[in-house]
Amino acid sequence: MAETSGEVWFYHLERSTLDQVLPELLDRTLQRGWRARVRVSDDNRRRDIDERLWSWRAEAFLAHGLADEAHAERQPILLTADAANLNRSQALFIVDGSDMSLKEEFERCFIIFDGRDDAALTTARGRWKALKEAGANLAYWKQSDEGRWEKAA
Q1: Secretion signal: which residues (predicted)?
Q2: In this predicted model, what pLDDT tens digit does every residue of 120-145 receive, in sequence order?
Q3: Who is most buried in 10, 96, 103, 150, counting CB within 10 A?
Q4: Whole-number Å distance between alpha carbons of 75 and 67
Q5: Which of 101, 55, 107 is nearest to 80 (CA)?
Q6: CATH top-level class for 7-151?
Q7: What is the residue-wise DSSP string for the chain?
Q8: 8 Å CB contact between 64 and 50
Q9: How far apart are the C-alpha atoms of 69 and 33, rounded to whole Å?
Q10: Taking a C-beta distance cutoff of 8 angstroms, is the pair 108, 118 a contact?
Q11: Cβ-contact 74, 88 below 8 angstroms
Q12: What does the alpha-carbon distance between residue 91 and residue 112 come to, in Å, rounded to a whole number?
C-alpha cells in the first residue's frame, strides 16, 4: 500500500509550458477551497514562478508567498524548495523534477513535467513506476491536439 495520503496526477506537457499550465491549475485548486504548495528546487525558477503568479492575468493575480518569507503559514499558495507543509496545503505541485517524499500528506499531488525534455520524461517515468509499485492512486493527464486535458491512464 502506498504511503502517500492522496491522489497523484501526472501532467505531461507537450503543447503548453509550465508558465501557462501552473497558474490555471493553481486557480482551480483555490476555487476548490484548497491551499497549495509548489515545490521548485531551483531558486531562479522559483523566483520566475513567483513573478509569473503576480502577473498571471492583466485583471488578476494569484495570491502567494515564498516559504522563506514572513507569514508563510498564511499563504494560499506557497512556493518552497522543501517538504515542510507550512501553509497546511491540500495540494502539492512538483515541478522541474523537484523531490517528492512518498510519506507526504496531501489530497492531490500534481507532478508536472515537460514531455519535450528527455531527462524530465525519464524522471517522470521512474516516478510513475515507483509510485505504482507503492500502490499509489495515480492518474495521467495529457493534452489533446485541441489543447484540452484528457485522462490517459
Answers
A1: none
A2: 999 999 999 999 998 999 999 998 87
A3: 10
A4: 9
A5: 101
A6: alpha beta
A7: --S--SEEEEEEESSS-HHHHHHHHHHHHHHTT--EEEE---HHHHHHHHHHHHTSBTTB----EETTSTTGGG-SEEEESSS--TT--SEEEEETT----TT---SEEEEEEETT-HHHHHHHHHHHHHHHHTT-EEEEEEE-TTS-EEE--
A8: yes
A9: 23
A10: no
A11: no
A12: 13
Q: Which residues contact 85 (CB under 8 A, 6 or more apart)?
A: 37, 104, 105
In the numeric block, the cell 483555490 is attached to 30
> Which residues touch 145 (CB under 8 Å, ≥6 apart)?
none
- Scanning the structure block, which residue is given the C-alpha cell 493575480? 61
Joined grid coordinates for residue 63: 495570491
- How far is C-alpha 146 from the chain's CA centre? 23
Can you tell me which residue has the cell 515545490? Answer: 39
Tell me the one-letter amino acid at 110. F
128 grid coordinates: 510513475
